[in-house]
Input
Amino acid sequence: MPGAPTAHIWLPYTQMQDAPEPLRAARTAGSRIILEDRRELIDAVASWWTACHGYNHPHIVMAMEKQLHTMPHVMFGGLVHEPAEKLAARLAVMLPGPLNRVFFADSGSVAVEVAMKMSVQFWLNQGDTGRTRFLSFRDGYHGDTLAAMSVTDPDEGMHALFKGYLPEQVIAPIPRDEASADTFRQLLHDHQGEIAAVIVEPLVQCAGGMKMHDAATLKGIADAAKDAGVLLICDEIAVNFGRTGTLFAHTQANIAPDIICLGKALTGGVINLAATVATADLFDAFLSDRAEAALMHGPTYMASPLACAAANASLDLFDSEPRLQQVATIEAQLKRDLAPLASLPGVVDVRVKGAIGAVQVSELHNLDWLKAQFVEAGIWLRPFGNVIYTMPPYTVTSAELSAITGAMAKILPRWAAREIDAE
Output
């Protein structure tokens, strides 16, 4: 509304005509967001799943301050710098197998766009001009840019709204059982000559509703892609760096993707940075006497020295602090605390994987009321689709996590009884 503090701001995923005024954040500390009115909220979603070390970790802050005074940014075209070289080398060592060529981007969506562009050009550089499509999965989400939207779930990705504008891809069900496995394999077979790559979110389709599949399912997808002779892209932007219990989710299936997309928690949630990492074999397909065989892509702020310094500091913390142990502790508590919620009216399923806990409901009504109730309880939690979920910082305390799950247990019955209808 005119004159309001947000009068000139266009908020994400928001119908601005009737949206309630957003809360005003003033500062952050640990697992908490402190509002301008001095209320403190426990962040149950780690700022869209990024703040894995909690907020304001001194080691990351110190690294960024040092880099800020030395060289906050320099273009990556024709120049390289030590923070990016160090980070690329560390990622190449951390990632399994031959994933060792790192292309830096400035957002997860762009990292996916780069992966898709790499995949198509990989085949073009070898004279195969027919492989220009991708096979992706129902309930998947890969970003809001054009190509990333095209491989996102048709409903979630607004395919109907942008029909004729989005590229048309091959969408399969996640092969959770024999019937869906047959459908997946048949689609892969029918479109084999058109498909450049299969793209999948390993173990958890986060923005698609926290839908989970096991390592055996993921291995089946990888094996089918290999048998069909197509590339495999693992989009780990939401689940990388420990979220599912291992540093990288796909390692639980012992598979070897051709490309992996990293982001979100890469910098510990302090600044935007993403990476598309390819195998040596894929990289070699771009080496040529022909200039047009090169990968012609270059985000302006790619490999920002400031962001690379933050990412290197974040990786230091995985070496020096017990992050994966903390994730295992969170997983155990989430399983214990959320299990009783399965019997509540309106609850369809309760799922936990690593530091992800999701309560799926039959219908997510009265969303603004629900969010307000969590804020009143001191919790920053953003339900969406048909899930009420938490993906807290790994440094969340047991008491803070109990406050999150306790709020769920108290508010869900009131929501199920449609208490707002009586207010």
